[in-house]
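Dear support,

I submitted the protein below through the web form. The confirmation email said the job was done, but the results page showed an empty box. After a refresh the structure appeared. I'm attaching both so you can tell me whether what I see now is the final result or a partial one.
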Amino acid sequence: ALKAKLEKKVSKEDIARLFGNVDTIVDLQKKLLEGLEVRFAEWHATQRIGDIFVFFAPFLRLYLDYSNNYA
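What the results page shows now:
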């Protein structure tokens, strides 16, 4: 019943546009988290995490694409 109500209000095209790259974002988040967890597990006084974010920076554009679909 809920699905039928949602389909009346939100088209399949809208759902695909809004959530089309969610799986990719979730995968990215998992990899980013894994990198941070490994780094934190080996943490020492001079440890840094910036290189992890620099590595993932090109992929963060996915969030821009995702958020722009709400405009």
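Response: this is the final, complete result; the empty box was a page-load delay. Residues 22-41 form the longest helix (20 residues).
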